[in-house]
Amino acid sequence: MAKSLHSMTGFSSARGEMAPFSWAWELRSVNAKGLSLNLRIPDWLEGLEASLRAELGKVLTRGSVTLSLRIGRDEEKTALVLNESAMSNVLDALATLENEALERGVTLAPSRASDLLALRGVLETGAGDRVPAPLVAKLKQDFPSLLDGFLDMRRNEGKQLVSVLSAQLDEIENLTAKAAQLAGERREAVARALSQNLARVMEHAREADPDRVAQELALIAVKADVTEEIDRLGAHIKASRNLIAAGGPVGRKLDFLTQEFNREVNTICSKSQSVELTTVGLDMKAVIDQLREQVQNVE
């Protein structure tokens, strides 16, 4: 089964909660020459960033990818636990203070339980809230749905790219056929002109070596011939279509082919010696630039 073409542009977001925590995911990507993973994960969620980085690396090959996770906490839903050790220390200190005051004849106001509970360390959040392991496990379980939405968007963008790239390749193919037709018509005209020039040269330069003159004129004709460039353009068009049909991470290869397209058209323009052929070459260059711009979005 052929793989689909993916765009490097994608976005996905999601929310979740596990009392007393709530969170918001955001995953986005833009174009890049290689794969760049930028993760913004709270440091206290031990092991989560490494796990998420590995998951992204399994399914992505190119793009500048940013994953952010914001964690919130509802204090009203946070379980409180009495720290018996801290409470014992506070009571011991209070007893010592009261005894010392009594010996000195100082009267202290009675202590209230609410005052003692308000002291730092006497009441703490529950052990389950302090240890992030259950939360990390839940976040790992939550992440695949976010990633699926992200990949779906890249896949849908890729489908649109296929239509755009195919249309541009069709246009390049039509212009290539037009260039081949003009080159063929020009070839006959060039051959007639060379024959006439050869006849004039031989008429006015009787000492010239006919074979040498013929070789020079033939060399001029070869340098003006664009058959090979047109043939290579046809091969590049076919190769590009095959890559698009195959799908997968083919962006680098397509980018290389667009450079080859440009190279062949530049050569055609430099050899053309024809206003019509040069015009077709320039039209082709414009389409190739558009093609290359779109290829930059392909993973």
User: What fraction of residues sit in β-strands?
Assistant: 5-15%
Alpha-beta content class = alpha+beta
Question: Roughly what percent helix?
Answer: 55-70%
In total, the number of strands is 6
> Which residues sit in consecutive blocks of at least 5 with pLDDT less than 50?
none
Shape: rod-shaped
Question: How would you characterize the largest beta sheet?
Answer: 4 strands, mixed
User: How many whole angstroms does the radius of gyration measure?
Assistant: 38 Å
CA(first)-CA(last) distance: 19 Å
Total number of helices: 9
Give an account of the 3D structure.
This protein is of the alpha+beta class and 299 residues long. It has 9 helices and 6 strands; from the N terminus they run E-E-E-H-E-E-H-H-E-H-H-H-H-H-H. It has helices at 48-59, 84-103, 113-117, 127-130, 133-204, 210-224, 227-246, 251-271, 275-295; strands spanning 10-18, 21-30, 35-40, 63-73, 80-82, 123-125. Strands 1-2-4-3 form a 4-stranded mixed sheet, with helices on one face. The chain has a two-stranded antiparallel ribbon with strand order 5-6. Strand 1 (10-18) and strand 2 form a beta hairpin.
Summed up:
By secondary structure, the protein is of the alpha+beta class.
What is the topological layout?
Blueprint: E1 10-18, E2 21-30, E3 35-40, H1 48-59, E4 63-73, E5 80-82, H2 84-103, H3 113-117, E6 123-125, H4 127-130, H5 133-204, H6 210-224, H7 227-246, H8 251-271, H9 275-295
Parallel strand pairs: 3-4
Antiparallel strand pairs: 1-2, 2-4, 5-6
